Amino acid sequence: MYQTNKLFYWLLVSMMIFACQNKPSERTEMDDSKEINFEMKVEKVGEWEGNDVYKYDLDNGFMQVQMTNFGGIISRILVPDKDGNLENVVLALDSIPQYFTGNGPYLGAAVGRYANRIGGASFDLDGTTYEITKNLGENHLHGGRKGFGVQVWDAEPFDTDQSIGVKMHYLSKNGEEGFPGNLDTWLYMELTTDNKIKVRFESTTDQKTVVNLTNHSYFNLGGITGDVKDHEVQILADSYTETDDRLIPTGNLLDVEGTPLDFQTPKNLGQQMELNGGGYDHNFVTKKKTLLN
Fold it and tell me: Cα 116–6–246 angle (5° rounding)?
């Protein structure tokens, strides 16, 4: 069960490229000589506001991923450790229905229409000021009170020669949480033959609007029962966005060099956290020319 007092001891992997190593497996890829046997199990786990909620368990014979059409949540990722024992490396609540209360701090969820904070819960677009939901004091956070992470998405499984996955769809109607335009969004989540989890958003709108979508998963690559502070972390970023005392971005970019946010070379996460007051809630600006494929 997720404990709120541990929040800052987890590294949020959102909108940044990172590399972590902890208890590395000796087997990083499946044997190419072996046939890949994909398997997907679909199970109804409840209802929310009159809509059926399902979980989807994907298995490629090496690792397993569980996701749900409630909130587009990735609720489990099982990978083998160096001894071949499967470990869950993504933080989640104990059961999917527990998310229905809205108390799951966006664990593994799709976040929209706008990830992160909007100061004053308003923005100007083409001369019009739009007032959006205030759900963090006087500010807006992660799409509002009923953002993408607490909606039931239409969903259907799909497969290719290289992957299996779930395609989800949600229509955010004009005016929802104060945002302009009907925003049609498709979310593709898939598990591949080479042990990658791919998450892709595609959106169209009938009116100019703002949009900023992400998956909000928290990882511990040593298994969620361990301590994330043992990780060695590298972030391919030479700057980060400055924020005010409300954590609202100021628009300024600050250099990470010589600060606790400098992960340009591999660093011990726990040691860096202590230097930074115990945790991180920052946006790193990645180096576009050196991002991993």
Answer: 35
* pLDDT tens, position by position, 183-233: 999 999 999 999 999 999 999 999 999 999 999 999 999 898 888 999 999
- Which residues, at least 6 apart from 225, have a Cβ–Cβ distance to it below 8 Å? none
Query: What's the confidence (pLDDT) of residue 289?
Result: 62
Considering only CA atoms, which of 239, 241, 229 is closest in space to residue 272? Answer: 229
pLDDT per residue as tens digits for the range 85-138: 999 999 999 889 999 887 678 999 999 999 999 999 999 999 999 999 999 999
- Of 27, 51, 21, 84, nearest to 221 by C-alpha is 21
Question: Tokens 């591999």, residue?
Answer: 266
For 229-252, the pLDDT digits (tens) are 999 999 999 999 999 988 898 999
